[in-house]
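Bug report (template v2)

What were you trying to do?
Predict the complex of my protein with uridine-5'-diphosphate-xylopyranose.

What happened?
Run completed; filing so the output is reviewed.

Input:
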Amino acid sequence: MKLCMIGTGYVGLVSGVCFSDLGNTVYCVDKDKKKIDSLNNGIIPIYEPGLEEILKRNYKANRLIFTTDFKKAVSNSDVIFICVGTPTKRNSNSANLKYVFDVAHQLKKTISKYKIIVTKSTVPITTGDKIEKILKRLKNKKLVDVVSNPEFLREGEAIRDFIYPDRVVVGTSSKRANQTLRSLYLPIIKKTSRYFNTSRRGAEMIKYASNAFLATKISYINELANLCEKTGVDIKDVSFGMGSDERIGERFLRAGPAYGGSCFPKDTRALIDTANKFETDLSIVKNVIKSNDKRKILLTQKIEKILNKKTNNKIITFLGVTFKPNTDDMREASSIPMMNFLSKKKCKIRYFDPSGEKKELSKIKNVKFCKSISLACFKSDLIIIHTEWNVFKLLNFRKLVKKKNFSIYDMRNIYSPIKMKHMKIRYYGVGR
Ligand code: UDX
């Protein structure tokens, strides 16, 4: 099949590359010429393990075409995926759909024979209706079907999540469009997952409902962690004890410093915005947003407490700053507000992250990127394990820090409190 991915950001590029690896010819279109030129030179603009190798293999086999030529890509394709960004509007909860509607208007001027238009970007419920309205003339001539096919890709695991999804959700009432999407996904659904056809709004709702639920699950275990700290219970035992119940499930029950990333924060807010528009009170999701925002402050106060409020000139090391491992993404990473606070408290902050130096942190005073873990930890007063990169999981802190008294704040509970006690290291976990 001939496909066109409009937008070569995280969703468009990963999906386009994976679709090409299934044997399809995929045009990846972007208006950013620099990005397209880099892609044509084999330079990948995003950090996604495994992507480069698959991209190069399919580019070489001429199944992947990177172009700024919107008209040519659309005219040569059967299915057009809209994969442009839908960021949260400034000082609002609503998703900015400008880029989505710009594409719809461009499609209106380009399409002259039947095409399936698919929104893969996360778009608020009823967006498909609005796109269809823009394409009304084409719709009346039966030249387009507008479909919702949300992605469930996790950063750092996107290739695996694409090839082995738990489910493929396709929202359309058009038999023709449904059959085409089903045959497109056949190589994937044959393996392990379910293909699920619902209404277009149903598919849009499933995406938000899923992300908001995962955010709820994480906030739930994070708040329980606070109670565990007060009652001397280990939250990891609670996660295990709860998660063994299949109705609950063990995944997304790891207590941490607050969820971050480009999705959970954006999607929970957009869902509230939609609910407000339809005069429905989603009180649980509202409280999840509040709880997660409050958590960042809570853990920052805990840092201050560990330092006995003596922060001046203290050397604080962050091991990992990204919102999760195996990505370079800093969007809504809880390390940013924590570092801002500690910088104002005159701490000397160092960090090491396997994905490299971060421009988001270079603006904060007294923050320095270190090229190695040992440089970052040397003579540190407090080591904060913020992101659970594998490379942090077997460190000998006594050897690294070379200082008698220092503390560890393990925000991802990757170390054992008992072992730390044996090594006479002051150790703090989350919910333990
Ligand atoms: C998420 C959804 O998982 C994915 O299905 C959707 O398509 C996009 O949004 P992503 O944002 O890449 O994926 O990361 P995810 O792995 O879900 O983690 C999100 C945040 O939750 C991270 O900050 C992570 O550290 C945190 N998290 C995750 C926890 O704190 N505890 C957990 O148990 C799991």
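What did the reviewer find?
The mean pLDDT is 96. The radius of gyration is 24 Å.
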